[in-house]
Amino acid sequence: LLAPKHIECKFVKIDAEKSPFLVNRFKINVLPTILIFKDEKPADKIIGFDELGGHDEFSTEMMQWRLAQSMVIKYNGDLSTPPDSKEKRSIFGHSNAKSKKQVRGPDNDSSDDDW
């Protein structure tokens, strides 16, 4: 999905089992591992899913944001905030996050505890 949108970058998928030389050369111990090269030299490495939200159901926008942090693709968003961490809002501008309801808040003096 990203390759056609970012012609400034080359995406290559390599089967680790069929490429033991590269696995040893770049010290790949965890799959998935994404090696990022810039000017023909290793510039960055994404190991596992931790930097992509901690799960394997990360969005394309999250991968795009992470690659942009390595400065290998052009990105129009905010590099300081991952796109999946932003609070989603409804079309009416309200947060879709469920708020915790309290029976008694800190301003309620009707406590049954008298001791």
Quick overview:
The chain has 115 residues and is largely without helices or strands. 14% of the residues lie in helices and 11% in strands.
What descriptive keywords fit this protein?
single chain; 115 residues; little secondary structure; two-stranded antiparallel sheet; 2 helices; globular
Order of strands, widest sheet: 1-2
- The average pLDDT value, as a whole number, equals 82
Give helix and strand order, one letter per element, not per position.
Answer: HEEH
Continuous helix count: 2
Strand proportion, as a percent range, falls in: 5-15%
Distance N to C terminus: 64 Å
Q: Structural class of the helix and strand makeup?
A: little secondary structure
Sequence stretches where pLDDT stays below 50 over 5 or more residues: 88-103
Q: Strand tally, please?
A: 2
Main beta sheet, described? 2 strands, antiparallel
What is the overall silhouette? globular
User: Helix coverage percent of residues?
Assistant: 10-25%
Radius of gyration: 22 Å
